[in-house]
């Protein structure tokens, strides 16, 4: 099974949310439908801007916890390293 650490954003340089899941498409859809997280629903945080796969759930959870403690600027750098225009990674 593959696990994902992901970052959602409300817009470019907007509000960020870090999470972990074993089904990225389903989890992002839950956020978009307002049933996954009160925070993402209230702050309109629905754009998938970063995702990193892991084979082990322990590694994914450890990375999620580490990213949540990062400074905002570090998270933005991580996003822009692989997605400089903050495109939604699940939008065709």
From TrEMBL:
Q: GIY-YIG domain location, by residue?
A: 1-77
- Gene3D superfamilies on file: GIY-YIG endonuclease
Q: CDD domains from the xrefs?
A: GIY-YIG_unchar_3
Q: Which Pfam families match?
A: GIY-YIG (PF01541)
Segments forming a coiled coil: none
Family of the protein in this entry: Belongs to the UPF0213 family.
Looking up PANTHER family in the UniProt record yields: BSL5627 PROTEIN, UPF0213 PROTEIN YHBQ
Instruction: Write the protein's name.
Output: GIY-YIG nuclease family protein
Q: Which organism is it from?
A: Roseibium aggregatum
């Amino acid at each position: 099974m593959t696990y994902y650490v992901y970052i959602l954003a409300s817009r470019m340089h907007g509000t960020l949310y870090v999470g972990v899941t074993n089904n990225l498409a389903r989890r992002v859809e839950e956020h978009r439908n307002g049933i996954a997280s009160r925070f993402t629903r209230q702050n309109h945080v629905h754009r998938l801007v970063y995702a990193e796969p892991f084979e082990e759930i322990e590694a994914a959870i450890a990375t999620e916890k580490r990213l949540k403690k990062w400074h905002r600027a570090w998270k933005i750098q991580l996003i822009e390293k692989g997605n400089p225009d903050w495109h939604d990674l699940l939008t065709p």
